[in-house]
Each structure stands twice: as C-alpha cells, then as structure tokens.
Design brief:
single chain; alpha/beta; TIM Barrel; eight-stranded parallel barrel; two-stranded antiparallel sheet; 10 strands; 30% helix; globular; binds the ligand O=C(O)c1ccccc1N[C@@H]1O[C@H](COP(=O)(O)O)[C@@H](O)[C@H]1O; isomerase; RibuloseP-bd_barrel; Aldolase_TIM
Length: 228
C-alpha cells in the first residue's frame, strides 16, 4: 500500500497565496506569529489570510517563545487547528491551550530527535528544522538528514528546513517523514532576491507535484507512519 506524505506550506501572509496552496492540495497552512520574522502576521491579518480556507485544511499557528497571552490573543481571533512551538517552550507550556500542538526542534545530533519525542509526550509530531546559531527557524537551510534515526519508536516526523521543489523528493526518500514543511523554498524572487512572505504559486505547485510523484513511485507504508 502506498503512503501519502502530508504537506504544510508555512509563512503565508496573503489570502491569494493561501488559496494557491489549497488549490495545489496542501494539507496544512502555517501562519507565523513571531514579530521579528519577515513572514510575521498580526492576528487580524492572519484572520484575513485564512478567511476562505475550507474545512479539512489544517491551520497552524507558529510561535517562538510566546507568552500564554500572546497565544491566546491569536486563538481568540483566528481559526487555528494546530499550534507549532518553535522555541524553548516546555511540555507544560505547549499543552496548556486545549489545542493539539507540534514541537519544532533544531537538529544538531541524532539524540536531539529521540530526546524531543520523550520531552514532548503530548506533541502530535516533532518538526525537525536546521540549526543555525541565533536563528530560531526559517533559515532556508537543510540539515544533515542522516541524523534522523530510522527507529519506528519516534513520534511522527515533520521534515523542514531548506526544502524546495529540487530537493523534496530526495528528502522524502531519505528520511521517510510523516510530513514535509516548506516556507522559503516556495517564496517569490525578484531579481534574484527572495521576497520573504510572498509565495510563488508556480513553486508551490512544483513542490507539491514532486511530493505526489515520489509518493506514487516509491513510498510504501512503514511502521513509522502508523506511530501514534
Ligand atoms: O519563517 C520564519 O520566519 C520562521 C521564524 C522563526 C521560526 C520558524 C520560522 N519558519 C519555519 O521554519 C521551518 C523551515 O523553514 P524554511 O522552509 O527553511 O524556510 C518552517 O516550519 C517554517 O515555517
């Protein structure tokens, strides 16, 4: 039986980009509530971005070391299905909002992945991102995928960090994640300069087409995809 890799397009700031991601078949969309990020949106802007997103598309709110009040102020205004914590939050903090959550970690060694599955028993999945000193995420850089253990005992893995249409197929073959998450790799460029927060609809389509292609050609269900 074949396995379908789930997909999330993150860092959306415009309704038309959310619509393009939905039209291309993305399973989840991400909104960044981290003001230093060039992709950050306010709660009211976010509500506008996702206003026409249909049912069965998971809306994810990304935070980096927020206060509980900041998280709640988003939940009060925006339809959010899933929380994504990308900083140094602990399990108790992540679990307090009566919402499912995923925990992002920045991978430096294989033991980071195993340890995070133990430290965050309530997380629906662990998102693996690249480590870059002083940068909490969204670096646009890949990490050493050989650091992801092949264990079946891990929580579902969401692979992130520097994914793009050119490398996502190989990443899926190599890591066999539950899902892939992309932000910078599907952003627009103007004269070779990244337009952070603005998505290129052609790149979104190309990225998702690559996921569908590799799934159809190579993926079979393994124990890892059934975890939890
Ligand atoms: O996108 C950001 O600006 C950001 C800021 C702080 C933490 C995480 C951030 N982005 C998330 O990082 C991963 C990987 O992004 P990329 O594909 O390498 O650009 C993804 O989940 C982004 O949403």
């Amino acid at each position: 039986m074949s396995f379908r890799t789930r997909t999330k397009i993150c860092g959306l700031t415009r309704p038309e980009d959310a619509a393009a991601a939905v039209a291309a078949g993305a399973d989840a969309l991400g909104l960044v509530f981290y003001p230093p990020s060039p992709r950050a949106v306010s709660p009211l802007q976010a509500a506008d971005v996702v206003a026409d997103v249909p049912a069965f598309v998971t809306l994810t709110a990304l935070f980096v070391n927020p206060t509980a009040e900041q998280v709640q102020s988003v939940l009060d205004v925006v339809r959010i299905d899933l929380l994504q914590f990308h900083g140094d939050e602990d399990e108790a903090f992540c679990a307090q909002f009566n919402r499912p959550y995923i925990k992002a970690i920045r991978v430096r060694q294989a033991s980071d992945v195993v340890a995070s599955c133990v430290r965050f028993p309530g997380a629906l999945a662990i998102l693996l991102d690249s480590y870059k000193p002083g940068v909490p995420g969204g670096t646009g850089e890949t990490f050493d995928w050989s650091l992801v253990p092949e264990s079946d005992d891990l929580k579902p893995i969401i692979l992130a960090g520097g994914l793009k249409p050119d490398n996502v197929a190989y990443a899926i073959e190599r890591v066999k994640p539950f899902a892939v998450d992309v932000s910078g790799g599907v952003e627009a460029e103007l004269d070779g300069v990244a337009q952070k927060g603005i998505k290129d609809h052609g790149k979104i389509n190309a990225f998702l087409d690559e996921v569908y292609r590799v799934d159809a050609n190579t993926r079979t269900i393994s124990t890892r995809q059934h975890n939890n």
